[in-house]
Design a protein that fits this description.
The protein is mainly α and about 200 residues long.
Length: about 200
């Protein structure tokens, strides 16, 4: 098992400068290296999810801006609800695969675009985003970080359309300023909870 840990270390690791492990100290070093390699792999999966969806966020936000006058909030909510319902039924009916599903660039661009589009029109980007990300079974903190970065990019892309549509007025900015302290406290509580909750319950 020590040799397997040694082999799983990245080629750039200093562990490769020595022969396969034989003693307890070598075993510990190899196991530590293998664990770090696994963490790097999980972070890489999250980065793929962000980059795939992020590439289409600006385009989808622009489409939402252009269609805002023609597509009602109710229609968007209905579409998001149907997506969530189909995803839920699919999860219940089909047995979940034992291994994480590998993401594809096409799937990331499509679902990232749908999430950005529905987020721009009705602040409802969650269900399309989860359709793409949940089957990947990302590690807990990688999953949370992926959500945070993706929707930060989406919200950044929405700034110009919202300005053009007259949504960012003095009144809305004042309300936002009042709510910022509550948002900061709520985020800190959420961060505290997610670090302590078990992966299975999460």
């Amino acid at each position: 098992s020590c040799t397997l840990s040694w082999l799983s270390c990245p080629a750039s690791s200093s562990v490769w400068a020595s022969p396969p492990p034989s003693g307890a100290a070598d075993c510990a070093a190899s196991a530590s290296c293998a664990a770090a390699s696994a963490d790097t792999s999980a972070i890489s999966s999250g980065s793929v999810a962000i980059s795939e969806g992020g590439t289409s966020a600006a385009t989808a936000s622009t489409a939402g801006w252009l269609l805002a006058a023609y597509v009602s909030d109710s229609a968007v909510r209905l579409m998001v609800g149907l997506i969530a319902l189909v995803f839920l039924l699919d999860t219940w009916i089909r047995k979940a695969p034992p291994t994480p599903r590998q993401p594809t660039a096409a799937g990331g661009v499509f679902w990232g675009g749908v999430a950005a589009f529905t987020s721009t029109l009705a602040h409802a980007g969650g269900p399309p985003f989860f359709v793409h990300v949940l089957p990947q079974k990302l590690e807990k903190m990688t999953f949370v970080g992926t959500i945070t970065l993706f929707f930060w990019i989406v919200n950044l892309c929405k700034t110009v359309p919202y300005l053009a549509l007259g949504q960012l007025t003095l009144e809305t900015l004042t309300i936002s300023a009042v709510l910022i302290p509550i948002a900061i406290v709520a985020n800190m509580i959420g961060f505290w909870l997610v670090r302590r909750i078990s992966p299975a319950l999460f």
